[in-house]
Amino acid sequence: MKNYAAGSVLALVAGLGFAPMAMAEGEFAGVTVEAKLIGGQQYEALYSRIADWEKATGAKVKIISQKNHFELDKEYKADIAAGTTGWCVGSNHSSFSSQYPALFTDLTPLLAADTIAAFVPSNISAATIDGKLAMLPRAQFDVSALYYQKSLYADPAKAEAWKAQTGKDLAPPETWDEFRDQAIFFADPPNFYGTQYAGKDEAINGRFYELVVANGGKMFNDDWTPAFNSPEGKEALQWFVDLYKAGAVPPGTTNYLWDDLGNGFASGTIALNLDWPGWSGFFNDPAASKVAGNVGVAPAPKGSAGIRTGWSGFHGFSITESCANKEAAASLVDFLTNEDSQKLESAAGPLPSRTAVWEYIIEQAKDDPYKSEVLAAFQETAKTAVPVPPTPYWIESGNLIFPELQAAILGDKTVDQALQDASDAVDELMRENGVY
Amino acid sequence: MTRAKLPPWLLLLMPAFLILAAVVLVPLLLSLYSSFTPYHLTRPETLWKINFPFNYEKALTDLGFWKAFGRTVLLLTIALNLEMLLGLGLALMVSKVQRGQRTLRTMMMFPMMFSPILVGFMFKFIFNDNVGLVNNALQSMGLASTAIPWLVDGNLALFAIICAEVWMSTSVFAILILAGLYALPQDPLEAAKVDGCTPWQSFRYVTLPFLMPFIYIAMAIRSLDVARAYDIVQVMTGGGPAKRTELLWTMIGRTGYVDARMGYANAMGYIAILLSIAFTVYFFLKLQRARRELGMED
Asked: What is the rounded CA–CA span in Å between residue B71 and residue A331?
């Protein structure tokens, strides 16, 4: 799962000035809004603003649960099963939201049209499931760009060896083929690896998904039959296999998740690292990272179809269908995702989901070359970012796919066999659930 | 008209019956019922649709399920035997200590005080291929020149998991066996010494038979623990990679809570319980035999 718990971040933007709230004084006096919110240091700064909303509206917010998204996901499922969905506001994530079609209400009638129009259109489109706006995105937009060690590209001996090997100048990779070749070229195991990848759960499925798309393929057909057992899918899986076979990735990479990757790159033993924006400050912080001052950031490379990889996701807030006072809940959600809230959140590193806040943070960062480089790389990648397929079976099918991807990477199965087995299993899942 | 009175013994037992029914029987029956349905957590209406025997057929014909079943039996067998041998050795050594025995006994119990999740994280770090203690130690001592993928290779990963299990739970055996050693009557040992038995013969034919009931009790307790091993494995490998360390409960946990297919997960759970029952019955039969051999009443 994407950067739900990514580590510390450095302020990208400083000096915020907050505009006064556009709320009627005391309009929800006496109302208590129960909320289940994602917990974690990087998410909680925003919650300090809740007191301002309470003061302005006269309502009270009672946080009844605060957990990471994996735990919230289990809790929401248990709530649906037990029928205990009387609370009002819940943190949501684009990768999970399609699993709860009946839990959350459509936000469109509860919000002003110009409020919704102020968000990045692709974010609103990804937050809309079956025509319902299931969540309003906060400033926690995630897409991955390429972090690399700059010194590797400034080393004349390496540049010469690369030129001799490929006939090309040594520069940060623009395609996934170049990425693989350079990772193998830089690798010197067990002390230094060319790259690494998250090797399990939705993390590897997401990477596989974005590579399939970048190669011109897709995960599912329009009728939700699996479509990844295709030449594009095989090319994508072969990329993971090639790197593992060549020893260009740490041998334990199939067990790695985001924290392992972030800490691995910061340890200085990894040349190229596709990672989330939340790590940018951490990587360049001398107290936390051995590569501080040596970090370059480039847009994500392109696949064989010339498409940039851009598996994306974002956090947001939803309102339950059975909430007793949806207007108060909508006011809170609107407040937590408004411009001031997004400026506050993105000041710590995460990317916003409002067009005006994007412009604001770029302007704020113009005097800092590293921050500007980070924002430029992520903004370029965000242009072509794609959310996960909007099926309630994304996580469930992923649990069938990733062990097969691992089996191919570790050499237990061929690429063809692994994808065939994964495709058969997903097909069976879809049929069992009456999808087709 | 006289009111029908319940016999006093039933009346007195009633609170116990009611509590047991509420906390054990009802959840058991509900989960058994849901195993006959396609119950999906996010679609509560599926609880009212019977699809028996679909879930059971699916589990019983799933090769992955049987592989996980076999791996759980293998883990159980190796972990239990290792813990028994190490626990026996530890108990014998501690029983010989003259000074500071109480402190040693307390120290021996430290690993049991840790949460299994914490133990999982600790051993995950120890066996990490890149920054882990084991690989760094092996490389520093010149015993390995490459990073050994402890948590990736199927056999090595199982070994790493067994290490964590053994580290945490050997003291269960040690404590129970130590209790047995304290209760050991000295007369037969002295008689054996007078008859000229070697220390090994005294141990093999006097001490060990007396300890066997304690060992079987520890084995029965631990077999239930290991048969539902989840926390440590989930943290260390999550059952992977490529299902190489998949155990019954990592599989069932994922199916039930992540995939939300509670009906199918419960069906697998009920089949898995057979494993626990089989091991428990086996150890109780062995326990009875050991007690009979010692002339104890059943």
From this structure: 53
- Smallest Cα–Cα separation from A198: which of A139, A273, A304? A273
Q: Are residues A159 and A271 in the same domain?
A: yes
List pLDDT tens digits, range B229-249: 889 999 999 887 999 999 999
**Contact between residue B272 and residue B248 where contact means Cβ atoms under 8 Å apart:** yes
Residue carrying structure tokens 């994602």: A38
Q: Is the pLDDT of residue A11 over 70?
A: no
Helices (runs of H) and strands (runs of E) counted in chain A: 18, 10
SS3 B123: helix
* A128, containing H or E segment: strand A128-129
A-B CB pairs within 8 A amount to 99
| Phi, psi for residue A92 in degrees, rounded to 5 | -140, 165
Instruction: Please name the residue of chain B whose CA is at the shortest distance from the CA of residue A76.
Output: B42
Question: Which domains does chain B show, CATH number per domain?
Answer: 54-112+170-293 (1.10.3720.10)
Q: How confident is the model at residue B15 (pLDDT cuts 50, 70, 90)?
A: very high
Are A274 and A155 in a shared domain? yes
A402: helix, coil or strand?
helix
Q: A168 and A133 in one domain? A: no
Q: Find the CATH number of the domain harbouring A83.
A: 3.40.190.10
A312 touching B (Cβ < 8 Å): no
Burial letters A369-396, b for 16+ CB under 10 A, else e = ebbebbbbbbbbbbebbbbbbbbbbbbb
Structural domain includes residue A329: yes
SS (H, E, C) B51-74: CCCHHHHHHHCCHHHHHHHHHHHH
Q: From CA B134, how far away is CA B169, in angstroms rounded? A: 21
- The reply to whether A131 and A149 lie within a common domain is no
Neighbouring residues of A68: CB distance < 8 A, sequence distance ≥ 6? A4, A5, A38, A39, A40
Lookup: tokens for B11: 């009346």
How far apart are the CA of B61 and the nearest CA of chain A, in angstroms?
Answer: 14
Q: What is the pLDDT of residues A270-313, one digit of tens each?
A: 999 999 998 898 999 999 999 999 999 999 999 999 999 999 99
Query: Sign of torsion, CA B56 A408 A415 A199?
Result: positive
Q: What is the pLDDT of residues B39-95, one digit of tens each?
A: 998 888 899 999 989 999 999 999 999 999 999 999 999 999 999 999 999 999 999
Q: Does A188 touch chain B (CB under 8 A)?
A: no
Cβ-based neighbours of B269, under 8 Å, separated by 6 or more: B31, B35, B252, B256
Angle at CA of residue B159, ends B153 and B164, nearest 5°: 125
Q: Is A430's pLDDT higher than 70?
A: yes
d(CA A285, CA A270): 17
Average pLDDT score over residue span B278-291 = 88
Nearest-CA distance from B202 to chain A in Å?
A: 49
Is the predicted ipTM greater than 0.85, yes or no?
no
Beta strands in A1-110 (DSSP E): 32-38, 60-67, 89-93
Question: What's the pLDDT score for residue B1?
Answer: 56
pLDDT in tens, B199-239: 999 999 999 999 999 999 998 888 888 887 889 999 999 88
What DSSP character marks residue A270? B
User: Cβ separation of A190 and B147 shorter than 8 Å?
Assistant: yes
Does the distance separating the beta carbons of A200 and B241 come in below 8 Å? yes
Amino acid identity, residue A288?
A
For residue A217, the enclosing domain spans 145-298
Residue A23 has pLDDT above 70, yes or no: no
Q: How far is A5 from chain B (nearest CA, A)?
A: 16
CA A87 to chain centre: 27
Q: Residue A2: its pLDDT value, please? A: 43
Per-residue DSSP letter, A192: B
Residues of chain B with pLDDT > 70: what percent? 98
